[in-house]
Amino acid sequence: MAITQQELSRRIRAAREASQMTQEEAATQLGVSRPSYVQIEAGNRSVTSLELDRLAYLFGREIRDFLAEAFEEEDALAALFRAQPEVASQPEVLEKLRTCMALGRELTRLEQFLGLDHEKAQVTTYSYPPLRSRWDAIQQGQRLAESERRRLGLGNTSLPEVTELLESQGVRTGLVDLVDDVSGLTLNDRKVGFFVVANRLHHHLRRRFSFVHEYAHVLVDRDKFGLVSKASERDELTEVRANSFAANFLLPESGVRAFIQGLGKGQPSRPSADLFDEAGSLNVEGRNDPGSQALQLYDVVQLAYAFGVSCQSALFRLRNLRFITEREFENLKTQEQAGKAKSIHSFLDLPTPDHEGLRNAFKQRFLGLALEAYRREEISRGKLRELALLMGCPADALDLLSVEAGDVETCEASER
Question: What CATH number is given for 120-250 in this structure?
Answer without folding.
Answer: 1.10.10.2910
